[in-house]
Fold this sequence. Notes:
Blueprint: E1 2-4, H1 5-11, H2 17-25, E2 29-31, E3 34-35, E4 42-44, E5 50-52, E6 55-57, E7 65-70, E8 99-100, E9 109-115, H3 118-125, E10 133-140, H4 145-153, E11 156-157, E12 160-161, E13 166-172, E14 176-183, H5 190-197, E15 202-210, E16 213-214, E17 223-225, H6 228-236
Helix pairs in contact: 1-2
Uracil (URA) binds at residues 104-105, 108, 189-192, 205.
Amino acid sequence: MEVRLQKFLADAGVASRRKAEELILAGKIQVNGVTVTELGTKVDNETDEVYYNGKRVKGAGKHVYIMLNKPEGFVTTVKDQFDRPTVMDLIKGVKERVVPVGRLDYDTSGLLLLTNDGELTYKLTHPSKQVEKTYIAKLFGRPDENNIREFSYGVKIDTGLTQPAKLEILEDLGKYCVCKITITEGKNRQVRKMCDAIKHPVATLKRVGTGNIELGDLKKGAYRYLTDREVAYLKSL
Ligand code: URA
């Protein structure tokens, strides 16, 4: 099937469509041995040989959308520089070249989406996209009404004031509290930093929802394919 070169690159997970356009314009892409700098160029996603950085880019084939329940102790990356276990080790049965959509920290567990749909990855991780992400956090101590109000205005962390967020106490365990936290951004270690800022640091953190997609009872370390309905919902965001 013939597709535009930038779509071919985005579908193959090389970059977002916009970044792929930049790569083409910069003369970084070769098709059948010839450098292509024309944005409208079409390629056959089965027969044409597309190269980036001297490596063949394989057509993505069909798009797949996966939800993984990431355990603690895995890095959200395709290859870790320190050779630690990565989330890719947990989806060995998937032959498509999927990549994680956003990131969960090494010590955070829960819902992680992976896909080879570069367009959707770009859309969902773009800062302008305010998709709610919901976490269950065990915090030291018990946040009070002021802390809850602070969350609702936004909390000052090292990168500035966060967007308004929600903090709800689910259970008081004495030394700890189980809380539901909802944020709309994806800044580095954001929930941990927000909880540090209100002096109730995170003991454990698990993501349980992205928009209305829920982790449900998926076992730790297991993955499943998203339903057509879930995929349609993500595309509609
Ligand atoms: N916030 C964090 O602090 N860590 C994560 O992994 C996700 C959100």
